[in-house]
Amino acid sequence: MRTDQRIVLAMAELMRRQGYAATGINQLASAAGAPTGSLYHHFKGGKREIAAAALRQTGAAYIQLLPLLLDPYDDLATGIEAAFAAAATDMRNTGWANMCPIGTVTGEVADTEPLLRAVAAEVMTAWVDEGSRYFADRGLSESDARSVTFAVLTALEGAFLLARGLRSDEPFLAAGRTVAMYVASLPASPPTPGSVVPGSRGA
Amino acid sequence: MRTDQRIVLAMAELMRRQGYAATGINQLASAAGAPTGSLYHHFKGGKREIAAAALRQTGAAYIQLLPLLLDPYDDLATGIEAAFAAAATDMRNTGWANMCPIGTVTGEVADTEPLLRAVAAEVMTAWVDEGSRYFADRGLSESDARSVTFAVLTALEGAFLLARGLRSDEPFLAAGRTVAMYVASLPASPPTPGSVVPGSRGA
DNA sequence: GTCTATAAGAGGATAGAC
DNA sequence: GTCTATCCTCTTATAGAC
Question: Does the record carry Translocase as a key word (chains A, B) (predicted)?
Fold first, then answer.
């Protein structure tokens, strides 16, 4: 793998475990298998620029999980509950390490690192846009699709946090059940081929 | 106010804005209006011990908001949605500074600071216990009460995170609506004086 | 109990040889 | 493009005067 890719990957991994401030350049260099000089050769902006790249890359990868996890389920609510359960299992198996550096870092730097806050906002906005598009394609109205996207994202990030603190998967299960219940209560069932759902958009 | 109280308060304030790692002893000392020596006089464990005290104190204060915010509403679902909206307004008015140091810090230190992770778990456990008791008193079954507590806490912490990154109150509104919908779907209506709700506990 | 001065080390970043 | 050595700042923590 290319050196700059190794650096970004190592940064993402370290940030999701210990955040931005606690991650040192030397620790990062040794984790990436590169001397400190290489870091500044590839990223003239130093630690901050590496963190920005790591957030962007992880954020983009992260949202791709949505269709991957939900497509297999005909019923959206069922799929969402299953996805939360899967996330819980993943976290348990990795010793309750967070899966999402954006979540770990945003709270930490929102007031002190304008660049990283902006990158986080950019990533989250993309999440909301892509999530809304996906749920709209699954038959929800545009406004419901956006609402569900926020519901999923907030519940997921909150569940990461509580699960990480409590070392329990109970937050995931409760959060998943809650969002699933909400989705199930919405009008417009999943689109069956040939049917036209009023209020839904394109496909 | 006593010096040690000022120190703990300043620590809580700094942690919720910038987390644990980024908060330095000198910054803390000047924020608390005390020289560094005083910090170590009152807290022999240094920064870590001060952080632990701040988390405990804030956590205890935090959960007291639950009855304060929900008691005025006869309908639990309506109250929850209103509470989320109130939190959104509060955050907007404070320039999207986080209201909850436990949330900001837990993600950051869960893998690296065993003591603080344990304190976070202790605080969160108290949240769950007190929340469950409150919702049970409001007429939910014990298992539903616990589930709703987790739903509220995860949605709230997640909404803090996304609202902080996006600088928007949309996450709060969507999260509040979701949890309210879930609560409204549960059996057992709010207890009216004199009625006995099966499965509910004490009073 | 309060405050000053300082120790000992780690932090991010850079220069320049290779 | 890789790596080493180093600069300077800032960190936590302590010692000891008041």
Answer: no
